[in-house]
Amino acid sequence: MAAPKVKQDMAPPGGYGPIDYRRHLPRRGLSGYSLFALGVGSLLLGYYTLVKWNRERRTLRMLRENLEEEAKIMRDVPGWKVGESRFHTERWVPPTLEELYFLRPRGELEREQFGLQNYV
């Protein structure tokens, strides 16, 4: 009996395609530029909130000092209520600049009203 003929496996005509050996992971999260922009944005928002809060605190401190001074000045006037609102409402109305600075030197009010216009 004759040995059967062996057929060898060969590559297809033109060869095999390239083997993809790199890792293909999906992108996760934001890019570095996006994270940097998010950090700078949150920093600026925090600074803005801090400045706004400090201005409100300064306003309330001035208002309290004004009420204490008003109590000293008007203590001899019968029927005077310190800090009574001139608006007929129960809600808190933010004080005007004139209300805040009426017991202070005129220059402070002008500096607050006109700000940096002196330098322009």
From TrEMBL:
**Domain of life, source organism:** Eukaryota
Q: Does the keyword Transport apply?
A: yes
Query: Where in this chain does the entry annotate a coiled-coil region?
Result: 50-77
Q: Which residues cross the membrane?
A: 30-51
Location (main, coarse): mitochondrion
Q: Where found, per UniProt?
A: Mitochondrion inner membrane
Task: Identify its membrane topology class.
Answer: Single-pass membrane protein
Q: What InterPro entries does this protein map onto?
A: GRIM-19 (IPR009346)
- Record's keyword annotation contains Transport: yes
The alphabetized UniProt keywords are: Coiled coil, Electron transport, Membrane, Mitochondrion, Mitochondrion inner membrane, Respiratory chain, Transmembrane, Transmembrane helix, Transport
Report one GO cellular component.
respiratory chain complex I
Family stated for the protein in its record: Belongs to the complex I NDUFA13 subunit family.
Give the protein's function.
Complex I functions in the transfer of electrons from NADH to the respiratory chain. Accessory subunit of the mitochondrial membrane respiratory chain NADH dehydrogenase (Complex I), that is believed not to be involved in catalysis.
**Assembly information from the UniProt record:** Complex I is composed of 45 different subunits. Interacts with CARD15, but not with CARD4. Interacts with STAT3, but not with STAT1, STAT2 and STAT5A. Interacts with OLFM4.
Protein name, UniProt field:
NADH dehydrogenase [ubiquinone] 1 alpha subcomplex subunit 13
Species annotation? Lonchura striata
| Lineage of the organism | Eukaryota, Metazoa, Chordata, Craniata, Vertebrata
